[in-house]
Amino acid sequence: MAKFTKEQIDRAKANGVAQSTLYTRVGKLGWDVEKAITTPSKSKTPSMEYNEGKLQRVRKRFGNELTFSIYKQIKELGFSDREIQRMYELKYHEVYSFLKNHKQILEEAQ
After folding, report:
1. How far apart are CA 100 and CA 30, in angstroms?
2. What radius of gyration do the chain's Cα atoms show?
């Protein structure tokens, strides 16, 4: 695995390159370290930025804590579990546990 100095990582971040991207570029793709640091990551597409903004507006409307009641309301608006996961910045296992804990209620609702 490639090793980077703090300065190299800081330079990469300043160029919009995440540390994980830096490791992928050099370790897996075989890029030159300088090229990996100085080549900015591709920006998000406008539709992705729109979707992220939409998710944040919905989260602001419902608050920072995801309760089962809020989950059901957001689902009724047509959002997927993946979008709710991104909206509340949850890890996959956190969403899985949340849904597992409410499985009986979900089954009764259907």
Report:
1. 42
2. 19
Would you say 55 and 87 are in contact if contact means Cβ atoms under 8 Å apart?
Answer: yes
pLDDT 10s digits, 45-64:
455 555 777 878 888 888 88
Alpha carbon distance 1, 27 (integer Å) = 6
Res 5: pLDDT: 93
Structure tokens at 101: 């804990």
Instruction: Give the separation between CA 53 and CA 37, rounded to whole angstroms.
Output: 28
Angle between helices 46-62 and 68-76 (to 10 degrees): 140
As given in the structure block, the two tokens for residue 7 are: 């300065």
Q: Say if CB 15 and CB 40 are below 8 A apart.
A: yes
Read off the amino acid at residue 22.
L
